[in-house]
Each structure stands twice: as structure tokens, then as C-alpha cells.
Amino acid sequence: PPTPVEPPATIAAGVRIGTVDVAGLTAEAAAELVRSEFALPLVLSYGPYVFRASPGALAVPAIPKAVQQAQAAQPNAVVPLEVTVRRPAVKSYVGAIARRFARRAIDARVFLRNLKPAIAREKPGREIDRILAERAVTDALRQGTRGPLALKPRVLQPKVRRSSIGPVIVIHRGSNKLYFYNGTRLLRTFGVATGERRYPTPIGRFRVIVRWKNPWWYPPDSDWAKGQDPIPPGPSNPLGTRWMGISSPGVGIHGTPNPGSIGYSVSHGCIRMRIPDAEWLFERVTVGTTVFIVRA
Fold it and tell me: Annotated catalytic, 254?
């Protein structure tokens, strides 16, 4: 007579592998069920956008080990499904979504409109909090949940706000005038001297980079200054008592002991002011103050 075939051993009643009920199943059926449940997409959302991640690309479940433990488990036991999360893959996946929706913060910016300062308002930025998102994805993979996980945005504040924009200097090279603004409000106008034709004062947007009281004058590397010696602070110093260097090499705003030059284009590129005017201006500008020089 034929040898009787024993029915395959099944898993005890009430046993679960993670969140999957495998009671009454053979080892092969239990493994297939756990594998198919693990492969269900992990759902993430960001506002109205929905993403479905493939768990198999992000983690590796130890299914054979879990099934073996389930076969030996007592009724109603819960067998953990160990999951090894591929952290670089999770980081890469979250990063790709984060980059898609990232918006950098935009600082307030001063610019010229009709030769007067105007200010473009700041705008906050946003980005997905990657650390929280990576942690949520990792936990979902390990716990067998599939979301949806709501990705949280983080607001990025601009570094420069409209209210923080202070002094602005606008120099009209053609008419030899310096206009001093607090933001967009004109406070004072000064007569100045600017560069002669051979050594013109540069046109453009600059900023104050140094402020010196009672500066020394050092001969620049230029043909007109060859053979001249440094001049210490004092009545004969061509820089007067104050120097405000701007981000154009060798160019600055300074006082002059020759007030008769004010109103003319006679300097070697710098902006000369009467000494009391330069001292007044010096107290109201900082390193970083915006300086516009225009042809008007």
C-alpha cells in the first residue's frame, strides 16, 4: 500500500509575524504572505503630492528567520520581523523629494530705481525636514506600517530683512554729489570731488569694506604716486581725518584738506568730501554699507 503523506506542518493559531497574521499557514505560504505584505508601497505625502516608495529598495527583511521562529511559536505569539534598513538608500530617496520642493530664502535687497534706493522685500524659504523624514521612513519600514507619512516642511528665514537695511550711499559722478539715505529716505546731500578723466571713479555697486580714523596715506601702485612717501595723520594728509574704503581696489570716500576741489572731477578715483562732512558720514556708515556710483 502507498505510504501515507503527512500534511505539511502549519503555524499555530493566532501567531503573527510583525503585523501579518500567519496562523494556520505552512512555512512556504507564510513566507510568501509576509513577502507580499512587506512589498506594499510606503506612502508619503507632502501637501497635495503623494509618493509611493518601494520598501524592497530601502530595506531587507529577514523573512526566513521570522518564519522559522513562527513555526516554533506558541499560539497567539507575535514574532518580530527584523528589517535591515539601507540608510544611504533612505537618505537618497528623501533627499530627492526634498530637493524637488526646496525653496531658498531670499534676502531683502536694495537696488536703484530712478537713481534712488528701492528695496525688494525678503521672502522666506522652505525645505522638507530631512532628519524627521528619514526617521519616519526608517520607523515605518521596521514596524511594517505603510503610512501615509506626512513630510513636514521647515521654514527658512532670510538673513536680511527690509527693516534691517540701514544706510545707503548714492554718488552721482557726473554732478559730483553724494546722497546719503537711511533705507529709502534721503537724509543729506553733499558736494564731493570725483576722479579726473584719466583716473575715473568707478561706476557700479560697491560696499564699504574698511573705516579708518586719522588714516595714514600710502602711495598706491600707480604712475602718479611713484617716488612719494607715506604721509602720517595730520593737516597735510590727503585723506583728511576719515577713510571709508569701498570694494573697488584703492578707492574710498575720504576727507580732503583741499576743499576747493569739491564739485570737480580732479581726484585719482576716490570720492573727496569736506573734512566735517566726511566725519559726519563716517559716524553713520558701517562696514557693509551699500554704495552706488552712477554716471548722472
Answer: yes
The crossing angle, in degrees rounded to 10, of helices 130-143 and 87-101 is: 130
Is 270 an active-site residue? yes
Q: Among residues 168, 270, 273, 291, which one is catalytic?
A: 270
Q: What is the pLDDT of residues 56-76, one digit of tens each?
A: 999 999 999 999 999 999 999
Which member of 173, 211, 242, 254 is catalytic?
A: 254
* Angle of the 27-38 helix axis to the 63-71 helix axis, nearest 10: 140
Do 31 and 64 form a contact (C-beta atoms < 8 A)? Answer: yes
Residues 16 and 76: their CA atoms lie apart, in Å, by 7
φ/ψ (deg, to 5) at 221: -80, 75
Q: Which residues pair with 78 in a beta bridge?
A: 16
User: What is the pLDDT confidence band of residue 42, given thresholds at 50, 70 and 90?
Assistant: very high
pTM equals 0.73
